[in-house]
Structures are given as structure tokens and as C-alpha cells.
């Protein structure tokens, strides 16, 4: 498996890279495309052991995601010292906490003149992105959070007890954080590709600091709003899509986070037959879910998404079946009874490998409806 950087050349879009100074260190930023007036920018942040290329290139290089990025500029941010070719951070440099990393985002957005974003992030990046949205809700229109863990306990101790047949070094613990046991045991090419990147694509000294920061995180300060409950409960004000593969090591923590979210603004997408990195394992289906999510925010008319329609048709899903699925979805909304609406929102939407149905994703002021 090769992580190629084809995204730039396909549409020959403008790409700018820049280090932005913040009180918590320099962050490496890559802007692809030109931000459009009255439209948010897709804003990404990566997980530990990765940078924006190794984390998101498999998704953004996919033709279905490229169809989406025709409509939006993209801003990738790499955590301090995690970008390709980064030198050692200065001696005595105090690596920012997860909370401090989230406070670099408003500075970056102001630097590039960006007024609002749709966040897309993974693992540690999802934790940071969610904190950013909690503290700066006016800057965030929506969040796609993959493998988010809102708990405070670290994964290093867990990994040291769960790993079998691996030397318990930092790369192996990151591999166990990113991938399921089945993937580690069976998908040797995928694991070898990411192990090589972790060892050779990221500055090892800087990586240790980032891992230590993530492993020292506090529990995220969020609480599910309950009628008659705490009127000061903190919750994300934007629509959010939580994504996890059904065999991911993050399944339990994502479901736990979902239980703390506002059910009227949150959807949990559990992707069937999918491992730890949905953007690598099933980029087409993740791109489709992102498309529906963005449409729920009021952008991108369905008529403009011709490539996604064609790709779904060629994969065995006909346009007529899509329309039937959509029709059933809307008719089912009118039949949802009180018992269904009060059901726990931890129910997940599962995508089957041969039948991609249209999920009902929460838009502004839209309650979640089971499909």
C-alpha cells in the first residue's frame, strides 16, 4: 500500500503551505483551494502517529471526496512537529496540552481569514476539534469526528496489556491505537505501511511529546442535555457526525461519547465491515456520509453530486433504489412515534458493503430519526 499525494494534480488547485506562529508553538498548515465567500472551509486535524497526509490522503484522493472538495477549500493543520520533514522541537519546548492545541485553531483561522469551518478529524484530532467547537461555537458549522474518545484515561496501559506478539514500543502501541486486532493479524501490507510511516515519516522525538500530551488529556467537559436537568450543561452546539468502524478498537469509547452528546444534533455512524481507519478502509462510503452531512447543513445541492451518483450506480446500487430508500426514509419520519423518538440515541447507523443507504443526518434544528 502506498500513500500517494495525487490530490493536488487532479484538479490543479492552488496549494499553499505555511507555518503559523501561536503561543503554543508553530503549527504547519496546508491550504488547498481558495476559500469561498459565505461558505465554510473543510478543516482537518490528524491522530497521533500521523500527519495530515498519512491520515487523510486516502480519503481526499478518492474521486468521491474530490467531488465534494470542488465546492470547498480545505485547510489541513499538523500538530507542532508532526509534519513531514519536521526537525526536533527546540530544547526545553513544552508541548501544548490538548486544550492548548484547540486554542491554536482560532489563531490559524484568523491568520487565513477563515470565518467558519466544517471540522473533520480522527482520534486525538477529534478530541482537540471537539474542544475547539465547545469553546468557539461561532466558528464551527459542523463536525465529523472519527474515533473520538472523550474519556480521560490513556490507551498506553490498555495497549500494553492487550498486544500479543508485538514488542511494546511506541510504534506498536500506536498501531494498536489505530487498528483492530484482526487488521494487525491479517492485513500485513496495511500495517507495514503505517508502521513504516510512524517510524520514518514522523520525527520520533516530537511524536513522543504529542503522544504524552494526548495520554495526559482530561475528560471532555460535555453533558447530554436533559429536559429539566442542568441548564448550564456544556454540549456541542453544531451538528455532529460520529464515525467508527464496527471492528475498530475505538467502538466502545465512541458509543460512550455519543451517549453524552445532544441527541437532536448528533448522529452515530458505525460502518460495517470496517476497521480502525474508515477513511482508509472505506473512503467512498465515508465520502458519501460526509456529502449527506454537508447537505444537511444546507450546502451542495444533490444535483451537483453527479460523480457520487455515478459511482454508486456502477457499484451495484441503482438510482431508483436510492430514490426508494430516500422515499422510505421520509415516509418513515412521519410515522415515528413517541417511543421511537425517546429511544436511546446510541443506536447506530450501519452501512453494509453492498447496499449503501442514505442516512438521515442531523441538520440545523433537525432531530435524529432512526433509519
What is the topology?
Blueprint lengths: L6 H5 L3 E6 L6 E6 L8 E5 L6 H9 L2 H7 L4 E5 L19 H5 L1 H9 L4 E6 L1 H12 L4 E7 L9 H7 L7 H9 L2 H6 L1 H13 L3 H12 L23 E7 L5 H9 L6 E6 L6 H4 L1 H14 L9 H9 L4 H17 L2 H4 L7 E3 L20
Parallel strand pairs: 3-4, 3-5, 5-6, 6-7, 7-8, 8-9
Antiparallel strand pairs: 1-2, 2-4
GO cellular component, one term: cytoplasm
Family: Belongs to the NDRG family.
Keywords: Cytoplasm, Developmental protein, Differentiation, Neurogenesis, Wnt signaling pathway
Could you list some keywords that capture this structure?
alpha/beta, 41% helix, NDRG, 371 residues, Protein NDRG2, cytoplasm, Rossmann fold, 9-stranded mixed beta sheet
Tell me what the structure shows.
The protein is of the alpha/beta class. It has one domain (7-351): 3-Layer(aba) Sandwich (Rossmann fold), CATH 3.40.50.1820. The chain has 17 helices and 9 strands. It has helices at residues 7-11, 52-60, 63-69, 98-102, 104-112, 124-135, 156-162, 170-178, 181-186, 188-200, 204-215, 251-259, 278-281, 283-296, 306-314, 319-335, 338-341; strands at 15-20, 27-32, 41-45, 74-78, 117-122, 140-146, 239-245, 266-271, 349-351. A 9-stranded mixed sheet has the order 1-2-4-3-5-6-7-8-9, sandwiched between helices. α12 links the parallel β7 and β8. α3 runs parallel beside α14 (283-296) and α8 crosses α10 (188-200). The model is unreliable at 4-11, 163-167, 306-349 and 351-371 (pLDDT under 50). Contributes to the regulation of the Wnt signaling pathway. Down-regulates CTNNB1-mediated transcriptional activation of target genes. May be involved in neuron differentiation. Belongs to the NDRG family. This is Protein NDRG2.
